[in-house]
Amino acid sequence: MAQISLTFPDGNAREYAAGVTPAEVAADISTSLAKKAISATVNGAHWDMQWPIDADASVAIHTMKDDAQALELIRHDCAHIMARAVQEIWPDVKVTIGPVIKDGWYYDFDREEPFTPEDLGAIEKKMKEIINRRDAVTTETWDRDRAVKFYEANNEPYKVELIEAIPGNEPIRMYWHGHWQDLCRGPHLQHTGQVPADAFKLMNVAGAYWRGDSDRQMLQRIYGVAFKNKEDLKKHLHMLEEAAKRDHRKLGREMDLFHMQEEAPGQIFWHPNGWRVFTTLQDYMRRKQNAGGYVEVNTPQVVDRKLWEASGHWEKYQENMFIVEVDEEHAREKAINALKPMNCPCHVEIFKQGLKSYRDLPLRMAEFGSCNRYEPSGALHGIMRVRGFTQDDAHIFCTEDQIESETKEFIAFLSAVYKDLGFETFKVKFSDRPETRAGSDEVWDRAEAALLAATRAAGIEPELNPGEGAFYGPKLEFVLTDAIGRDWQCGTHQVDFVLPERLDANYIGEDGAKHRPVMLHRALLGSFERFIGILIEEHAGKFPFWLAPRQVVVASIISDADPFVHEVVAELKAAGVLAEADVRNEKINYKVREHSVGKVPVILAIGQKEVEERTVTVRRLGEKQTSVVTLDAIVEELGQAAKAPDLA
RNA sequence: GCUGCUGUAGCUCAGAGGUAGAGCACUCCCUUGGUAAGGGAGAGGUCGAGAGUUCGAUUCUCUCCAGCAGCACCA
């Protein structure tokens, strides 16, 4: 047997026979390490304690102290233990896949009966039993045919399909947790007792399509979370409770921002408070856009199907469009129209009015475009995913050479705006060609290359989102997260070689000939609705002062102070502050509580003393202590704070 | 759209085969109180919609609508 040399993190090396396992290495080092070890890293790969090492390698043995590896293994073993528990309780249930995800894992099962919340309790109990059995985890690499036959014999058709999908050069790894068996790429813990029995929890059950394909069988997915100890689990559950308090749907009601109702699913009734946020944000965006060299336009809501046919939407997007058919009796001629789901075709129509010269490019055409899309009912979510929304949309008509500079400028623009709105960091995803698409592969090659090059030139290496591009072009997505960590695409930047072609847009080049412009679809906020939803959750309802729908309440302590309260309110209003008086017959405690709950950033209290001294007592949201300031000083300060960041 | 769950007062929620309850909010009265709920009284509901079973349904069954979680979708 050949000798190999293993190098440890401290730089020391030892010789072993080829094929030695980390378990043997750990035992060689010390019996306590052998017991505590959970896995190893071998040449950078996460390695099961039982996998042989065949050549010289760097090796690190992990224990529960190594968070990354420990959590991955705990969660992965939890997935197996849960699947085993389910099959011990209901032997007929078929198992499929069970990966580790953020904070935990899930496992998909095929079972006729739905799992109930009581079932989850029973499964948890069984899991604890299995953990306490401390069954050894063992693994073997099998021949493909043998594995297929094994699963066919065991009536596990999903596993057969999974094996068939594993590339030919990859090993088929079989794992056993005691007698229970699963196909798995590993690694795993050494025995089930290494999973903390009090640090996991099954969270919920939901349907999920087999292999993510909506044409296939719907399975039942059970989600769980797992941590290294009980305290971490408790912290996680507490964090979820706190996040629920930031839910924009809850805060939207509490702060009287908007409501939604059955008669208009997926559409928003903006209340005065919410609309104030909307218009303040819109005014800000308009100023930023004007400063950024955009021209603003506005286009029709209801547009004849002919334009949608020409643009390709009728073919590719019709099921998401609200179709408007006018009854023949009431119309001179029967026409089929659609509510616009996007602004792009209309913008091309504006571009096409009159001859355009290369001197006009890049032409940045913006619209606060009100769009309607018939989104699937299950996709609707508060004000984040709706059927009627307003985009901060623009289309940049430019030459292929200008893509890079326009993209860079856009990314800088977006970063500045996000920063003003309280987002220092955000994810950038690059989505390439989807299966259903318009345009030739050659055009897609160019569009993808151009966008990627421009993004990298702007100093960003985006995360790849394969196959997620729009039907007409690849896109960059600027992603923000909500209170419980769900991703939402907000900003977007897309290259489109297709639409100008389809709608026959052109400009006269330097050479006097007609040329096709490239179109860049871009939005910073994405939609005002979604972005405001994110803003609410990000700030937990405590908007930056300039964006807050209610900025100051001036509250009287005694009714003799009322005249001065009204004077203060008038002065604040004159300084551009949203101020309101609260002279109700209530105690100051009551008023402070109510306006604190209502997330009003500043409460000014006025009693006998303030009237005499022409001062106010300032209490800021989230702070307990108060300060006394002169009327002039507070008007000056809040007048300044009420200005949008681009005006301050 | 799919799977599961939910729908009772403005909000949060309780309840039962015999046509409904609490707290907060609201209205009125008393209280002028110094920084997160002062006291009292009152008003408020086609129990999501429709059909069925029943002597009787808000409660049981079915269909539909909407919401929630996840999946699929997402220009």
UniProtKB/TrEMBL annotation:
Residues 247-544 form the Aminoacyl-transfer RNA synthetases class-II family profile domain. PANTHER family: THREONINE--TRNA LIGASE, CHLOROPLASTIC_MITOCHONDRIAL 2, THREONINE-TRNA LIGASE. One of its GO terms (biological process) is threonyl-tRNA aminoacylation. InterPro entries: aa-tRNA-synt_IIb, aa-tRNA-synth_II, aa-tRNA-synth_II/BPL/LPL, Anticodon-bd, Anticodon-bd_dom_sf, Beta-grasp_dom_sf, TGS, TGS-like. Its EC number is 6.1.1.3. This is Threonine--tRNA ligase. Belongs to the class-II aminoacyl-tRNA synthetase family. One of its GO terms (cellular component) is cytoplasm. The keyword Metal-binding applies. Its cofactor is Zn(2+). SUPFAM superfamilies: Class II aaRS ABD-related, Class II aaRS and biotin synthetases, TGS-like, ThrRS/AlaRS common domain. NCBIfam families: thrS (TIGR00418). It catalyses: tRNA(Thr) + L-threonine + ATP = L-threonyl-tRNA(Thr) + AMP + diphosphate + H(+). Homodimer. Gene3D superfamilies: 3.10.20.30, 3.30.54.20, Anticodon-binding domain, Bira Bifunctional Protein, Domain 2, Threonyl-trna Synthetase, Chain A, domain 2. Pfam families: HGTP_anticodon (PF03129), TGS (PF02824), tRNA-synt_2b (PF00587), tRNA_SAD (PF07973). GO terms for molecular function: ATP binding; metal ion binding; threonine-tRNA ligase activity; tRNA binding. Keywords: Aminoacyl-tRNA synthetase, ATP-binding, Cytoplasm, Ligase, Metal-binding, Nucleotide-binding, Protein biosynthesis, RNA-binding, tRNA-binding, Zinc. It is found in: Cytoplasm. Zn(2+) binds at residues 344, 395, 521. It comes from Actibacterium lipolyticum.
